[in-house]
């Protein structure tokens, strides 16, 4: 169960950049076409397949997706966030993020931040460090840095708990309410 006190900032995260362009919609994030062995595998293998056919073969846990303007536009599908998580993406930094996609990212605990100028700071494959305690993203490959937005305590609590459902379950349990378990 998550600790109900506001969480501290996570330790700095270092990862490899996957740079994509503007107006990447949820159909591109959770597209179709290839059938996997199950729902999760299908989401994973189709993630960004139309934009970056090499993405799912080479993405690794801890990698960071950097996008241009209007990231996550389109339909309100949570599967777009799930697909990124299944590929191992740990953060999304974008010039701007569609509001519904940001809300889905919070609900599923995938830190997704608007960082103006981020596409000018990085190139594909760069290593960057995201430090929420100093509110800075640094390019470790080529140098340079940008400020990060402050993440509200309530959102950090959701991230630390692993998503909105665990937060709700914890709060209900604190009131003596336990949801039914499925067989």
TrEMBL record:
- Entry keyword set: Lyase
Q: Where is the Aconitase A/isopropylmalate dehydratase small subunit swivel domain?
A: 61-112
SUPFAM superfamilies in the cross-refs? LeuD/IlvD-like
Superkingdom of this entry's organism?
Answer: Bacteria
Q: Which Pfam families match?
A: Aconitase_C (PF00694)
Q: Where are the transmembrane segments?
A: none
| Stretches of the chain forming a coiled coil according to its record | none
From the UniProt record, which GO molecular function terms apply?
Answer: hydro-lyase activity
Q: Which InterPro entries match?
A: Aconitase/3IPM_dehydase_swvl (IPR015928), AconitaseA/IPMdHydase_ssu_swvl (IPR000573), LeuD (IPR050075), LeuD_type2/HacB/DmdB (IPR011827)
Q: Which PANTHER family match?
A: 3-ISOPROPYLMALATE DEHYDRATASE SMALL SUBUNIT 1 (PTHR43345:SF10), 3-ISOPROPYLMALATE DEHYDRATASE SMALL SUBUNIT 2-RELATED-RELATED (PTHR43345)
Name of protein: 3-isopropylmalate dehydratase small subunit
Q: Which organism is it from?
A: Streptomyces tagetis
